[in-house]
Amino acid sequence: MDRLLVKNIGVLATPEGRSAKGGKAQGEIRTLRNAWVRIEGGLITGLGSGEPEGTENARILDAGGRLATPGLVDAHTHLVFGGWRQNELALKLRGTPYLDILAQGGGILSTVRATRAASEKELEDKARLALDEMLAFGTTTCEAKSGYGLDKETELHQLRVIRALDGSHPIDLVPTFLGAHALSEEYKNDRQGYIRLLCGDIIPAIAAEGLASFCDVFCETGVFTAEESRTILEAGKAHGLLPKIHADEIDPIGGSRLAGEIGAVSAEHLIVCPPEGIAAMAAGGTAACLLPATSFYLGAAYAPAREMVSAGVPVALATDFNPGSCPCLNMQLVMSLGCLKYRLTPEEVLSAVTLNAAAAIKRAESVGSLEPGKLGDLVIWDGPDLNYICYRLGSNLAHTVIKKGVPYGKE
Ligand code: IZC
Ligand code: ZN
Q1: Range list of β-strands (E), 23-169
Q2: Is the pLDDT of residue 411 over 90?
Q3: Which of 41, 42, 55, 247 is deepest in the core (most CB within 10 A)?
Q4: pTM of the model
């Protein structure tokens, strides 16, 4: 079996465990100095401080005294889409709100037109370039949503592209069905008809093909109400798709409360999450997946992350990569914003982009921390410690990214 020994790690920093960490535990990070990690057959089989063990016939990777952490987990992306939306920059600069652009048939709906017009091969090639960039920034696992088809054929296309990329790209992909991302142009005067199509036809078809692990809804003014979201997420649940929800991004219309009530795995955005939403999430065991680069890009407020940590809600951070509100693939920028804008400590941020992010996509058994039995997914950083990675802004500090024991980048 192929064996990789990563040695001469100056500092190894990792959360520990196989479930999300909330409250004080979110900031608890195990630190080893002068450390090593052994990876065999893609899995971590040993790690420690000092003299490495079990090194016979191992390929050696010398980390040169650098920091090592688990590979980053990006728990919220809209990876697969046609076109871009650079035209919206000028609209934004003139002060046009995000939801007004959508209401005028632009925004998500313009990406839907471009996605429907693209072939499966074009969608795959384009998303592959994004994944290459993500890997270079240190992401080794990522969630990917559909939601730019809004019809059965194109939604299934998007999910098949995600499946193909999961099989052919080093990054592991976790698929989410987001047919409830907007009301399609064909159904704009028939909300109930669209919800029936989602629940009665598209969700069963996706479940039958095993194309998604999660079902997500954009619960927002002018998009789907909390009650409509409940109907769609319950239909997903009945077909084995676990619930996620875009909640309280622009208006607090009850998304976070619903998330807690139905036991959603995660609620996302939460920029304007009220205290009762935080309490409901704490009670329902729902993780908060916060997207600070989106707040930055929209010029919006920042989610009440500290209040969530205090309430024991595990906080994850993700990019929200999408062509509208956050065309950003860089988890390192997200980490810096997590410190600067949410006032999370670098240790809390590390849990947020590794173990808690893994838990938010139900992968905490296999990724999110450096421990025997988990995948050999690591980042060797161009920097000595965690503070440095969060403190630098906008550079790519990932030196070598290791996915299942295979190194990418500088060696
Ligand atoms: O394409 O605008 N917020 N969905 C919900 C998005 C942003 C993606 C988009
Ligand atoms: Zn999103």
Answers
A1: 30-40, 43-49, 59-62, 67-70, 72-74, 139-145
A2: no
A3: 247
A4: 0.98
